[in-house]
Amino acid sequence: MTLASLLVQLLGGLAGASTLFLTSAGLSLIFGVTRVVNFAHGSLFMVGVYTAWTAGQWLRPILPGSAGGFWLAVLLSTVVVAALGALLEVLILRRIYRAPELFQLLATFAVALVLRDGCLWLWGPEDLLGPRVPGLTGAIPVLGMPFPRYDAALIAIGPLVLGLLHLVLTRTRFGILVRAATQDREMVSALGVAESRLFTSVFAIGAGLAGLAGALQLPREPANLGLDLPAISDAFVVVVVGGLGSLPGAFLAALLISLVKAACIALGTVELGGFSFAFPRLTLVAEFLVMAIVLVMRPYGLMGRAAAAPRSLATTLPAENAAGAPGRWPWGLLVVGLILLPWLAAGSPYTTVVLVDVFCFSLFAMSLFFIMGPGGMHSFGHAAYFGLGAYGAAIVLKASGWPMLWALLLGPLGGFAGALIFGWFSVRLSGVYLAMLTLAFSQIVWSIIYQWDDLTGGSNGLTGLWPAPWLSAQVPGATANAAYYLLTLICVAIAVLVLRRVLDAPFGLALRAGRDSPQRAESIGINVHAVQWAAFCVAGTAAGLAGVLYAFSKGSISPDLVHVGRSIDGLVMVLLGGVEALAGPLIGAAAFTLLQDTAGRSFDYWRAATGVVMLLIVLVFPQGLAGLFRMRRRPSTT
Amino acid sequence: MSTASLPAAASPILAVSRLCAWYGRAQILFDIDLTLARGEVVALMGRNGAGKSTTLKAIMGLLDRVQGSIRLEGADIRGKPAWHIARAGLGYVPEDRRIFTELTVMENLAVGRQARRSDAPLWTVDKVFELFPNLGRMRNRRGGEMSGGEQQMLTVARTLMGNPRVILLDEPSEGVAPLIVEQMAAMILDLKHEGLSVLLSEQNPAFAGAVSDRACILEKGQVQFDGSMRSLIDSPEIGRAFLGL
Amino acid sequence: MTGQATHSTLSRTVLLSVRGLAKSFGGVQAVRGVDFEVGAGELLALIGPNGAGKSTCFNMINGQIRPDQGSIRLGNPDHSKELVGLTPRKVWRLGVGRTFQIAAVFGSMSVIENVQMALLSHARELHEFWRPARAQHRAQALELLDAVGLADQATLPVATLAYGQVKAVELAVALANQPRLLLMDEPTAGMAPAERVALMALTRRLVTERGTSVLFTEHSMDVVFAFADRVVVLARGEVIAQGSVTAVRQDPRVREAYFGSGRLT
Ligand SMILES: Nc1ncnc2c1ncn2[C@@H]1O[C@H](COP(=O)(O)OP(=O)(O)OP(=O)(O)O)[C@@H](O)[C@H]1O
Ligand SMILES: Nc1ncnc2c1ncn2[C@@H]1O[C@H](COP(=O)(O)OP(=O)(O)OP(=O)(O)O)[C@@H](O)[C@H]1O
Ligand SMILES: [Mg+2]
Ligand SMILES: [Mg+2]
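Predict the joint structure of the above. Result:
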């Protein structure tokens, strides 16, 4: 590798940094003002790419061969995506600002599902190749190596937009209002500012930036349906590494991450003291490594500041131990009913198969709820512990040849160990920073599992993980998997009971204390970090157990277990059920698993169908599904 | 002042009748009746939890569930969003100092700025700093870096920048040094002389007595006494019964 | 303990001794070289204009902010302990409780759970994973709530209390570990006159009964004059006067910097 090729790689990185920055800046603005973690932001980026393609197609016959056509298409798709953002805000988000925190995440996740299938429907599954930009084709020689002209133009756009946004935010009244609303929008409104208009415009601007980024990306990357997830996760990383609310920080972070990635590719495989290390492998996790390092060293990102917690709009904090869950009797009856089910449903064997999934995910969701609700720590990477449990058990079984029962007992320790390490770092942060650090850790786990072929089977995963013979045996008169079904049911029921009990114990109270007011908690002698760390370990172990049970029910595992998608599923389950009640995660897990299963089997557009159902739930029951039960149980207390 | 001696019923600028309000399912206010004449200062008094702050929030449109009628110069504002009510000329100073901690003093004031209304006094940054010289000395300090009392002054200043006709002041003297409390009292009298009306939630009887024309005492969300400040001072048994003086 | 020293307030046993305390935030010198002492069993009022540095002093004693300079020693001079450098947690375990200027409580819990939490922490039972917390230290918590006049509200969610009542909850929480020194930042702000007097009378009773010292700030001069044994006046980060209530009250500098006419508070 020559110096010139390294330089060209790095310059390419700079060009990528521009679009990355634009997407992230939009995300950061929207989050800042509306406190909505906009999961649909990556989808807006993707829509931007597609719209730019279509606009280009329309404009080509009208303005053949001129650069104006391309830039007009860019402008058009910016406007279209901005309008789409405004529409989303008005139609959906506006109705749920008062819902519990993070609930909007669920709504935007649903929107992301709908938008993805919308793109599939409008543009089809094939990749669509972008145009070459007239006037910016060809390359400039850099130390004798060619560097695309278009990329050079892109490099300039990032700083330009940064400067513009900075001016708007600090010099204009609109900017001041945006920053004020970031902290306390109710007060802004009480001072005579029409907050609804402010929110809609911020959403439109944020979405527009995503659209712009998408349109600018088109000449470098074909439009395809896989663009949304990487775009959103990269943007999250950038926002957090830069420091929430800091646009210059986001710019710096975009540069840093793009350059590190470019450098990894440019370095290739390096021989060092007899060891050879393939740097390109690192690109899978480069941004997450950078994020983990930055957050561990600077808990508020590169340029972020410890800000006072924004006023939450929810009028009261959840009181988890208040009558949120149905009493003992309904639960007892439910468990008895489930125990008898394999015999009752002997005619439809699939029922107990799906229910095993439901049980595993119930425990998974419950363990996530444990740190998210009472702990106030929103983990976005909970799948790591699920996966570590599953792989732990698989490795015990495969490598040691010990019986399955040992794997069942030792596997959860994989989740525990992960939580022990990652939790120690994570509890030092809070809010979105914590969420992103957990995400980073889970991505790192994912990439290790994905690449460590010898131990984990790499991308193929591990197969042949069957339960012990006595658990696979046919139970007379019951469904095929009855024995394993009952084992899962019992394990999950016990684990859930234990988690509940712990929440009611002094430890659970201390956990809530640390969430409610860390300042007060510390000043009555509670070591908030220690309590949270312990909670992480408990939750990690429980998630590990869920993973083990899941692995043995499927017979094989793959790195997908640890993928971001699974962590998001967990979040969705918890939020769907409602974070305010203990029954929430269980109900949420059941609803989500069944929904996905039914929609997945019967529909091409199952994502959109799931999304629409979720949106309806969000709009109709803003307290989560468990809120519905509570309303019924306590008709009136005054 | 001639306006102050007008009977309150003549043409109230703010008239609240049969106001009920809830937090969730708990009813906090029960049929509150209140009027405020132009240029009048009314003190809303009562023990902790009597519902003073809730009354102000309900008027300001900050509660989800409110019944009754709230008229600002005859126009019903109940159920309108808070920003609409603010633009109609109602200023609100909350009790828990909700300044914008990330913004500087000047920017905090800028958020409060609104277009001028012909019938309300015009406030400029300079005029506000004349009233609170402390703030003038820290124009570029971030709100989060100010002491509790400084923040309290900033909330009042910020509201004044909206040139309100009626101000809802929730315990302005709380946490403020005695010298500044005196300035606050003088300020309220100044506002009154400029024709502004003030509805003041206040626990400090000396302060309330010095600035208000009338007092309205709440107890458990109901009005127990509504009369001139003088009549309250003259009948100590009322103070003893409802204020614990 | 107060019996041995009667001729001068300063010769009584010292519980807390602050020397040369200084702190600046960026360019702002919030506290510059503050010295004062709190005697055992004494109620000392720290007063001064807004922004004088009172809360900053509290936060340094409590371990929440680290001073730039100076020392803070707790205990009588023979075997005292340096507080500078300790976390709030450690300071609390040494017997220093505190209430905040803007009351800080556990918003999702009931009133009694707030107090139980502090009692559990005092008993070092935080890492109990099994027995339900609800039943623990209940009687003691009720006793404390009774002392601050909240026994009837014990089971209400603390989020539904009026601000004044929240302050009382905070006091009960701060008393849970039977502190030697209680730091109270504007304890009666936002309270009705009768409750102010009640709260401070309660505080006073504690002082005499248990020998607890209290260091408090307050802008309500009624309270200061009626309840403080001694007053320290801060202005712009420096001590400008200290002594008995009568002496400070007549000091012209204090009058000019802080009291004004004193009519309204
Ligand atoms: N967010 C809330 N949710 C539920 N109840 C509330 C809430 N805020 C206040 N309350 C209840 O409403 C009642 C009236 O409270 P409010 O704050 O209006 O009292 P206040 O008269 O202003 O008291 P203070 O002088 O202490 O400020 C209180 O009993 C309180 O418990
Ligand atoms: N984090 C901070 N950063 C910068 N300046 C600060 C910070 N905290 C306090 N200050 C400044 O230090 C000074 C002292 O503040 P402090 O809160 O100690 O005042 P105080 O005496 O408690 O006043 P009050 O009676 O109004 O509560 C003030 O001028 C304040 O603006
Ligand atoms: Mg109030
Ligand atoms: Mg203070």
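Chain C has a mean pLDDT of 86.
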